[in-house]
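Deliverable D4.2, example record:
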Amino acid sequence: MRRALYGDYLECLSGARNAFRSLSRNLEAAASEREQMARDSFAPCYGIRYQMSITASKDVFEASEIAFRRLRDFRDLAAAGTLASDEAYVGGRVLYDDALSRLRAAMRQDLDADRVSATPARLQR
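Output generated by the structure prediction step:
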């Protein structure tokens, strides 16, 4: 169950992040349209965030909250019209990417994803 939830959460964050990437390269969107697009792209993350709060391990939940907040900050940059070449955009991307890396590491640890298989070597061939 956690594996599916974690995958869904990462997928949701990724979808929003990709939308913000597109907005940061869109020179034609009006300010109100840009803000609405950013908020609409991020909205699905709230529901799955609440699922994480009651299902994820403590370490994963804490990391998921940090990643969520960094992406929300990134959303605000995209909504405000910050372009991909702007220093604020680059800084926001780095903060989010770092938080996402820590989240994935916490998820892998929680799921014991790096465990060495108990299958004998002769059967792994």
